[in-house]
Amino acid sequence: QNAEIKKSSSSSKTAVKWPYSSWDSFPSVFLSPLTSMEDDDGEVSWHSNRSLEYDFYRDSCPEAERIIRRVVHELYEVNSSVAPALLRLVFHDCFIEGCDASILLDAATGIDSEKDSPPNKNLKGFDIIDKIKSEIEMVCPGVVSCADIVALAGREGVVQAGGPFYPLYTGRRDAMHSFRDVATSELPSPNADLSETLASFASRGFDLRETVSLLGGHSIGVIHCKFFQNRLYNFGRTNKPDPSLDTGFLNLLRSRCNDRMNMAYEGPGVDFGTLYYRSLLQGKGILYSDQQLMAGIDTGIWVRAYASDISLFPRDFALAMMKLSNLRFLTGSKGQVRLHCSKVA
Ligand code: HEM
Ligand SMILES: [Ca+2]
User: Fold this and answer.
1) For the domain that residue 80 is a member of, what is the CATH number?
2) Per the entry, which co-factors are needed (predicted)?
3) Which CATH number fits the domain that encloses residue 312?
4) CB of 224 closer than 6 A to ligand 1?
5) Is the interface score ipTM higher than 0.90?
6) For residue 220, which atom of ligand 1 is closest to its CA?
7) Ligand of minimum distance to the alpha carbon of 183
8) Are 162 and 199 within one domain?
9) Closest ligand 1 atom to 124 CA
């Protein structure tokens, strides 16, 4: 049994409203104990069979979660781009060998850094994690893992940007390795078609609905032109633009990119999510892989649902983010707690 949240069973029985603003208001129905994966081969057991806990640092570092919330809040007030940066970090960490801060390690002897993998080239937010870590180290040295900081800071970023709060257990430990080649081959591509994207998420245990909701992460942040340049003039060697692009939007993207400006997603706000799905309905998805959600009947149904029902997306997104943040993790005596997030201790 993987560490996942039973979504359909719990959500159908309770009429819940989202967003919750904190742990206190979160219904206990979602807090069934997490059971982490058993070692099935008894060999490469980088995950342990111990699970995460509610408020793991309650005795060892009771200030930890408050510090994370404060730092993210303070930085967000100065520059709202911290929110998308932190959210994307969670995705890129947890998707590759679990939520183990493998994404944070710098290249070193014996470390093939994931930062050097092409899909991670534009990743941001490492400085934010370092800042949080150093503030926490001043209060309780050597206690709080970088993996927990990534997951919790990502959550705070979502909340700051107007997205839903979701509760997270803690106690993840940090990997001693980084997985550059795995990241290169297994992070999804912006040029992937729908079946490839669905297969990629299915390989991590996400069903179609969860995949559509996770892509709502693209409600915030910036996207560089190079990731959709091929859609503008010569799509699939046709010498024509991507036919799934709305014409007016195509012209907008062309002019922005000619002026060497990048495309911003909708930006933060009360409508976290809704506008992203509405733009897909209008053929205004920026990435090919985003727009592909409209290429399937089933995925299109969820896009429509999220575009029209403003309370459905926050709920589904919160549950999918909980699942992403618990995808796999190291606990117990596996891994370590790093002193600096970019180096093995
Ligand atoms: C098919 C899956 C996905 C693909 C192909 C993909 C690809 C990309 C690409 C190419 C960018 C632009 C990076 C840049 O220009 O610097 C981006 C940005 C971003 N992605 Fe994704 N992504 C995927 C799924 C997700 C998921 C599941 C999340 C989170 C739940 C996410 C969160 C973000 C965020 C927040 C940004 C903006 C980052 C920033 O502005 O700092 N992405 N993604
Ligand atoms: Ca990882």
Assistant:
1) 1.10.520.10
2) Ca(2+); heme b
3) 1.10.420.10
4) yes
5) yes
6) 35
7) 2
8) no
9) 41
